[in-house]
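Comment thread on ticket #2218

A.B. wrote:
> Attaching the input chain for the structure job we discussed in standup.
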Amino acid sequence: MPTATMPRDYYEVLGVSRSASAEEIKKAYRKLAAKHHPDRNPGDKEAETRFKEVSAAFEVLSDPDKKRKYDTFGHAGDGFPGGGFPGGFGGGGAQQVDPEMAEELFRNIFGGGGGAGGGGFDLGDLLGGGRRGRPRPGRARPQSQPAEDVTADVTVPFDVAAHGGSVSINVGGRTIEVKVPAGIEDGKKLRVPASATGSGDVYLRVRVAPHPYFKRDGNDITLEVPITVAEAVLGAKVEVPTPDGARLTVKVPPGTSSGSRIRLRGKGLNGGDEYLIVKVVAPAAADEESRELMEEFARRNPHDPRANVPWK
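C.D. wrote:
> Ran it. Output below, let me know if you need it in another format.
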């Protein structure tokens, strides 16, 4: 005849002290149940046994009446009305835990239904695996908890934000192409519906990557254009790029100063304008003759650019 063995102390099974709160007991159970659940450890008998053990411990320690009896009498609960504790003496001392009861405890703690269809609880997703909980005949499946929405940042290339296009994101291991409307601005949000993600809605906060030389202000574009002193004095024609990839030849009027703005109507984004910001770049005199020529130019063209500054 087999010898009865004493089941492990339930507090030891869950790894908590006897003074643990209900929340601490629940937290310990969640962690251990997720770790040893059979769907996460297919074919592992030891994990299955451990899962039943922690489920039995939680069934008792989460019920105030059963916990009180267990704290007083230990595993000798078979003598109380209504039956003993799971894992009590009987059947050779082995812990007799109904697998359906263990699953039910698991669902009650983690929430959700137990089916593979009809919006049921996806146990495989929760545990990081690919299997789903199987519905049991004759058992009603509780409604699944609605998936939570997620907000995340996504960096969009300048040209894609300007002209529209798509970017790839990864949601739960799934790659999704997200359409980006033309002219979207930094800080705006894009919504990816749950039907595309397989979970909840995803809200993407757009971060527009900087451009090497264009700067954006709404639908207007600015571009800094350096010119020489001679071009500033005499005027010139310079070639400049536009956001649509074209290149235009633009006239710089004689006497143009640094900071002057030249407007290219309709060459921005979505009907906006492109503004050229002129920057006069002065070289050092290459030789004495060049210096004398500049001095002669200054004598012939007297000009005080600081004549009307407010701080003079």
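A.B. wrote:
> Thanks. Noting for the ticket: Residues 45-61 form the longest helix (17 residues).
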